[in-house]
Design brief:
mainly alpha, four-stranded mixed beta sheet
Amino acid sequence: MRTDRRFTFDLQLFAGEKTEKATPRRREDARKKGQVLKSQEVNTLFVLTAVVFFLRSYGPYMIRSFDQVFVQTFKHVTMEFIPENLFAVFLETVLQLAILILPVMFVALISGMAANVIQVGFLFTTETLKFDLGKISPAKGFKRIFSKRALMELFKSLCKIGLIAYVSVPFLLDRAPAFSYMMDMSAAQSVELITDTAFTVIWRILVIIALIAAADYLFQWYEYEESLKMSKQDIKDEYKNIEGDPQIKSKIKEKQRQLSQQRMMQDVPKSSVVITNPTHYAVALQYAEDMEAPKLLAKGQDLMAKRIREIAAEADVPIVENRELARLIYDKVDIGRFIPEEMFQAVAEILAYVYQTRGRI
């Protein structure tokens, strides 16, 4: 007995383990909640690459414009230093610098948005904006600080700093002697030296960031897939939610059948004749001069047939026995349908008999 209980308990634990890949429904629900696969390092790589390429063409114009701005600013040194003049000079300088920097910021913004769209697609959700007391809980905050994700982010940052220093510092040390001669260079030569050095270092850094972004994307993909994994019970529950619980579906069908039978019994008094088997089957037909053919209003077997006969007798509807025809109509015709052409002759004879006995013809 203990072994059986232990075995059952182990099965329950196994069923609760999240070992199964996420279903499309699970992925869709997670996406609606803002849980998507995204690497921030990929965004960083996109933004830096776009800005660097943009500065390669825009940079010279930007430097010349900076030079003109500062020259124009220092021309105001001869002005009287009163608060109004200083504020006007400051405002004009800041505005001109902002106009120069704005294109770079715009490129960074567009590239960041493009990186998000490439990784996530177009998605708008308010789930991540909802207030959650758990986010300000000290206990949960402490767990997040020392979580596997936080440790991975720390490790990633240290690797990034170390690798960038590894490729940048030796190169800068090699170039250091050249900077000592900048006093003897013209302004254009100094700017060219600084620009060339900066872009060389930046390209090396971009290579490092690209490697880190690739590794981080793989890690984020692994974490994302693990977070979406489902247990066997989760998959069963989802299937029940989509397809419906078999017991509930059975109850719904039973209720629908009862309502259909109730409507069917309400139509029996409208029928022109009830044809019986005589006890096992009963079918109720309706016919009027403006109808293209007799219509089946109700049909039943055994107890249902008995109930149809009782209602027909109470409503003074003629009841005619015809074993073969009653069984044939029951098997071949659905409720609410007209009888097929091959049954016209037999049904017409019964209707003629009913009308004759009722004195209608």
